Amino acid sequence: MNIIQDLEKYKKKQSLVLSLGMFDGVHLGHQSIINHLKVKSREIPNSQTAILTFWPHPRLVFNPNDDLKLLNTIDEKIELMDKFGIDNMILKSFDETFRNLTGEEFVKEILIEKLNVKYLVVGYDHVFGKNKSGNFQLLKNLSQSLNYQVEQMEAINLLNENVSSTKIRNALQLGNIVLSNEMLGYNYSVSGKVIHGKKIGRTIGFPTANISVDSQKLLPKKGAYIVEVLVENQLYKGMLSIGTNPTVGGEKLSVEVNILDFSKDIYEQEITIYFKDFLHDEIQFESLEKLIDRLNEDEQITRDFFLK
Question: Could you give the CA distance from residue 169 to residue 175 in angstroms, rounded to a whole number?
Fold first, then answer.
C-alpha cells in the first residue's frame, strides 16, 4: 500500500476510485465501502483505490481540550487499510488552510485537480468542507461538470442498528466486547510496550505484564477481560485488567495482562491484546485472599472460554 503524507509533493495522475472520512475503527460499514471501491476500480481502466483520511481527528483540531478517544491509532489504521487491500492511503493534516476550504473548493482543488478522482464513494451521513458545506447533493451537482461519478453507500445494519464508530465506542465503554467485535468485524485490540509495574501480581501467583498504551487510544471500561495476547508472533490466552488496583491501594489507571502458561521476560517488548469477552467490573476486595480466589475463578472461566 502506498502512503501519501504530503499532498503538495503528490504528482501522480493515475485515476483514483476514492472514499474519504475518518474511518475510525475500519468497521463493517467502512469495510463495505472499501470492498465497493475495489469492485469499481476493477471496472475503471488503469485506476487504483484510495482512502483520504485525516490526522489528527478534526474534533481535536476544533477543540484541543476534547477528550475524544479513538478506536485506532494511526499505525493500526494503516495496518487495517493494508489488510483490506487499499492501494493508496492519503493522510491529510487538518490544518488551518484545509479547514477553511468550502465543500466546492475541496472537491475542485483536492479531489479533482490534485488527486484525479474519477469515482467517489461516500458514507450515508458524510459531510465535509467549511461549515459542513459539502454533502452528497453537492457532490452530485458538481459531478458532471468535473467529470467524475459519485455514489452514496447505505449504512450497514446489525441487530437493527446502524454500525458506526460512535456506537462501537459506546459499546466498549459499557464493556460490551461481543457487540463491539461484531460491529468491527474483528477483535478490538490495544498494543503497547511492556513496562515495569509494582510487581504485586507475581507475589500472589498471577504475574502480569503492564502495558503502556497510546493516550489517544480508547480503552474499554474498567474491569477484567478474557483476551488473547500476541507476543513475538505467537498467540497466548490471557486475563486482562483495566483499572487502578483498589485492593492494593492503587490510584493510577493501569492496563495489565496475566498471560496463561507463559514465563518469558518480555519487558520493553511491544505486545498486542485482542479482547474476546468481558469478565466483570473492577472490584475492591476485602483482602488479598479474596482477590486470589477471584483470580483463580477468572482463570478457570477464561480456560473454559477457549475450550468452547
Answer: 10
pTM: 0.93
pLDDT digits (tens, 9 = 90+) for 69-108: 999 999 999 999 999 999 999 998 877 788 889 999 999 9
Query: What does the alpha-carbon distance between residue 158 and residue 180 come to, in Å, rounded to a whole number?
Result: 11
Angle at 228 between CA 223 and CA 234, to 5 degrees: 150
Q: Do 207 and 200 meet the contact criterion of CB atoms below 8 Å apart?
A: no
Residue environment code for 186-202, b if the CB has 16+ CB neighbours within 10 A, otherwise e: eebbbbbebeebeebbe
How far apart are alpha carbons 183 and 189 in whole angstroms?
14
As beta bridge partners, residue 221 has none
Enter the C-alpha cell of residue 267: 519487558
> What domains are there in the chain, each with its CATH number?
2-161 (3.40.50.620), 187-305 (2.40.30.30)
Distance, CA of 205 to CA of 191 (rounded, Å): 24
Which of these, 23, 19, 67, lies nearest to 164 by C-alpha position? 23
